[in-house]
């Protein structure tokens, strides 16, 4: 699921938008590396990765676009494989 704020059509008002990017079955082991590989493929399919560059080394979980956050947050549970996936991503 992705959420963003955009200008409403025909207005300067801001509007909250949401869309389902993907619902993906991850075959095999759910290691952090496998999760990161699947996430990257899904972000590629959505056309997001071509618009971002890696963030500052002090912020490894954020991807930046011209100093504006393109991808701000991932919501995950607190398992080690999710932490590894975000680091790998």
| Counted beta strands | 5
Ranges where pLDDT stays below 50 over 5 or more residues in a row are 56-69
**Class per helix and strand makeup:** alpha+beta
Total helical segments = 2
Q: Could you tell me the radius of gyration in angstroms?
A: 15 Å
Q: What strand line-up does the widest sheet have?
A: 3-4-5
Strand content: 15-25%
Give a description of the structure.
It is a single chain. The chain is α+β, with helices and mostly antiparallel strands and 89 residues long. The chain has a domain at 30-89. 26% of the residues lie in helices and 24% in strands. It has two helices and five strands. The chain has helices spanning 32-45, 80-88, and strands at 2-7, 14-19, 53-54, 63-65, 68-71. The strands form two sheets. It has a three-stranded antiparallel beta sheet, with no helix packed on it. The chain has a two-stranded antiparallel sheet with strand order 1-2. Strand 4 (63-65) and strand 5 (68-71) form a beta hairpin. The longest helix is centred in the middle third of the chain and has 14 residues, at 32-45. It is elongated. 4% of the residues are buried. Residues 56-69 have low confidence and may be disordered.
């Amino acid at each position: 699921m992705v959420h963003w704020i955009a200008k409403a059509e025909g207005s300067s008002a801001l509007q909250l938008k949401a869309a389902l990017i993907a619902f993906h079955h991850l075959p095999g082991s759910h290691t952090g590396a496998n999760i990161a590989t699947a996430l990257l493929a899904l972000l590629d399919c959505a056309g997001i990765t071509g618009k971002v560059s890696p963030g500052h080394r002090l912020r490894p979980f954020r991807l930046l676009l011209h100093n504006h956050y393109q991808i701000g947050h991932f919501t995950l549970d607190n398992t080690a494989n999710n932490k590894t996936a975000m680091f790998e991503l």
